[in-house]
């Protein structure tokens, strides 16, 4: 993404909306970015591109059940 990294966006979102469920879809995120997102943004899950639709659905279902 231009100008801002995904983990940085998740951290900002978490600071403003701490109760939202966060899933990172990534092709580039390395271990440090994922660790930051888990620790500083309470990341719920991440998937690497190319994910299968079945995995994406299985990933978001628990978050939807919390609504």
Class from secondary-structure proportions: mainly alpha
**SSE sequence, one letter per element:** HEHEH
Q: Give me the CATH architecture, please.
A: 3-Layer(aba) Sandwich
Which assembly state applies to the chains in this document? single chain
Shape assignment: globular
Tally of separate helices: 3
Q: Helical amount among residues, as a percent range? A: 40-55%
CATH topology: Rossmann fold
Strand content: 5-15%
CATH class (first level) name: Alpha Beta
Q: What is the CA-CA span between the terminal residues?
A: 29 Å
Number of strands: 2
Cross-sheet strand order for the largest sheet: 1-2
Low-confidence stretches: none
Average pLDDT figure: 86
Rg from Cα: 12 Å
Q: Provide the domain count.
A: 1
Largest sheet composition? 2 strands, parallel
Structural features, described:
It is a single chain. By secondary structure, the chain is mainly alpha-helical. The chain has one domain: 3-Layer(aba) Sandwich (Rossmann fold). Helix content is 52%, strand content 12%. The protein has three helices and two strands. A two-stranded parallel ribbon has the order 1-2. The termini are far apart. The mean pLDDT is 86.
Notable characteristics:
67 residues; 12% strand
Summarize the structure.
By secondary structure, the protein is mainly α. It has helices at 6-16, 31-41, 53-65, and strands at residues 23-26, 45-48.
Chain-wise SSE layout:
Elements: H1 6-16, E1 23-26, H2 31-41, E2 45-48, H3 53-65
Parallel strand pairs: 1-2
